[in-house]
Design brief:
Layout: H1 2-29, H2 44-54, H3 60-84, H4 104-139, H5 144-158, H6 161-175, H7 192-229, H8 232-239, H9 244-267, H10 270-273, H11 276-282, H12 287-296, H13 300-328
Helix pairs in contact: 1-13, 4-5, 4-7, 4-9, 5-7, 6-7, 6-11, 7-9, 9-13, 11-12, 12-13
């Protein structure tokens, strides 16, 4: 397992580099100019100096290598300086946002807690709900619970999140006036009342994301559970006198989780990338809204960095899913 993991990590390095090059070239081909929002009264020579300050006067390959150095080397050094009080990267240029003229990683760090609280909580709750629903639906196939779970899952997976979010806002915010429709990112939880306000404003966005994630994972787990319930090893386990609880939860569920791990692991990067629309609907000031604002303002360093981080997360959780396969199924060996 260690050799396989090390080999996959070595393969992931050129993969990530190729992904970074593709992202950079795609953004280079995208229309738009960061100087387009500059007032027309500014003289051309001043605009030229502004372009030079942003590094836009350099060739594409020079800007790509500079960004790669800043992201792979300078930013980690700044993180080490922040943790340990050193000054390794004190004079090194960081990845700067064209829109705010601030370091990109600092802006991402400011928005990350909001995304983790709302979108991450929605994913955790969705997975926690999906697993028991999938198990019970498969074990009691065609029962009223299975029929209800199938209906709710189909609705949750088919209806887009922006429609579900707007529907909840109309019902619980406009008509009933129970929950706030806009997420207050400036709220500081320092008392019981502020904690209640925080919970109330998280209910709707978390419910929207949890419903969508639970619908997908529960249907997939139900299908794999049904495939395994009819296998010979299940009949053998029952013939040995094992209880139904042990058969279903220890044998069937463990084997059924092997393909589901892929769905869950690859869904983790969606915590950062897949809830962009939901964050826009509820005005959650997270990474999704940061990416949308960067695209609208043609802030290429911010868009490039966020997109690359999402790609790295996908590659990393692919590797994690492969490692978990060997833990769940002893038959899988990577020698």
């Amino acid at each position: 397992m260690f050799t396989y993991t090390l080999r996959r990590l070595l393969i992931a390095i050129p993969t990530v580099l190729v992904i970074s090059l593709v992202i950079f070239m795609l953004l280079e081909l995208a229309p738009g100019d960061p100087m387009s929002d500059v007032p027309l009264t500014i003289p051309p020579e001043v605009k030229a100096k502004m372009r030079e300050a942003l590094g836009l006067d350099q060739p594409s390959w020079v800007r790509y290598l500079l960004w790669l150095k800043q992201f792979m080397w300078v930013e980690p050094l700044h993180l080490l300086d922040h943790w340990f009080g050193t000054a390794y990267a004190a004079d090194m240029q960081r990845v700067i946002s064209w829109q705010t003229r601030s370091p990109v990683t600092e802006l991402i760090a400011q928005r990350l807690p909001q995304t983790l609280w709302v979108v991450g909580m929605g994913y955790v709750i969705g997975v926690s709900i999906a697993i028991p629903i999938g198990v019970i639906s498969a074990y009691r196939q065609y029962s009223w619970f299975d029929q209800l779970g199938t209906f709710v899952s189909m609705v949750g997976f088919s209806v887009p999140t922006f429609f579900t979010g707007v529907l909840l806002i109309v019902v619980f915010s406009v008509n009933l006036n129970w929950l706030p429709s806009i997420y207050d990112t400036t709220l500081v939880v320092d008392s019981w009342d502020s904690f209640i306000r925080q919970v109330k404003q998280m209910i709707m966005p978390v419910a929207v994301l949890a419903l969508y994630n639970a619908a997908q994972i529960s249907r997939f787990l139900r299908a794999t559970m049904l495939d395994n319930l009819g296998q010979d090893y299940v009949r053998t386990a029952r013939a040995k006198g094992l209880t139904e609880k042990i058969v279903v939860l220890l044998h069937v569920l463990r084997n059924s989780m092997i393909p589901v791990v892929t769905v869950i692991a690859l869904g983790v990067p969606s915590i950062f990338a897949g809830a962009i629309i939901t964050e826009q609907v509820f005005k959650v000031n997270g990474l999704g809204q940061l990416l949308i604002n960067a695209i609208q303002s043609n802030d290429l360093p911010m868009v490039q960095t966020l997109t690359f981080i999402f790609a790295v997360l996908i590659v990393s959780f692919n590797l994690l899913a492969d490692v978990i396969y060997g833990v769940l199924d002893p038959r899988i060996r990577y020698d």
